[in-house]
Amino acid sequence: MPSQGNQHRQTLVLCAAAVGVGLLVTAAANATPVQQPDGTDIPKPPDRTDRPNEPSMQQVLDTAEGAGQIDVTTMVDSEYPPTNSAALNDVDVDAAATPQTFKPQCDLTFEVFSRGADSRNSFGWYNVTGSATEPTTSELIEMIGCSDPVGFTSGPVNFAEHPRWTGGDIGFYIASQVMENGGWDSSCPTPSVHGSLFFSESKYNRGVDGTTDYKYVLIVDSKITPDSFYFGWEDSVYNADWDFNDLLVRVTGIQCKGA
Length: 259
Known about the structure:
The chain is mostly beta strands. The protein has helices at residues 57-64, 91-94; strands at residues 11-13, 34-35, 41-42, 101-103, 107-114, 122-127, 141-144, 153-158, 170-176, 196-199, 217-221, 228-233, 247-253. The strands form four sheets. A five-stranded antiparallel beta sheet has the order 8-5-13-12-11. It has a four-stranded antiparallel beta sheet with strand order 7-6-9-10, with no helix packed on it. The longest helix is centred in the first third of the chain and has 8 residues, at 57-64.
């Protein structure tokens, strides 16, 4: 059975109001790499054949977490994670494919940290229903648009007062320009107009082999920012390179007052 990576709780409490904590995460180091159903270890370093200056998920985290930006022109793919970095996170150890659903209980802020290869992906959430079929486009609520740049912040979002939150767990998704057959939709991807959709619940995601349970997002806890963690997304089925740098968003939970 493919590894799920860190043994997080299956439902992550994004804001635990009763204990006054903005984000409650239980993390443990990976004993084995996270894997796809076909046995592929993830994440991978980016293929720099066509994009020599594209940062990896590791590099983005190093920059975001204060380890300093790495000069990608002097880095080789075998240095992964980079040996020339005071890396505070090691994606091979710290990246997790679980939890896949989340329980919001107070305000959350979302910040764009990376758009690999200038990917124009949008990001949002949906109410978890337990259905065997993926959410409909009308059930997807966009929070970050395709044109929102690195550094853009969405929120704080108070889910307790959000008119579309049904009171249970939520999942996250991205809308991508890349179609499952490798084609390209030039439109700005939205819930209703897109090339493909990917979900935090892997049961809705397909691989190029047509099977389900592929992971298109990895989660890494922040080691310097309280109550924060990172979502690193992959945005393609047909030519997925599994570097999870196509959209990287940091989620920060704002502390609540009382229950």
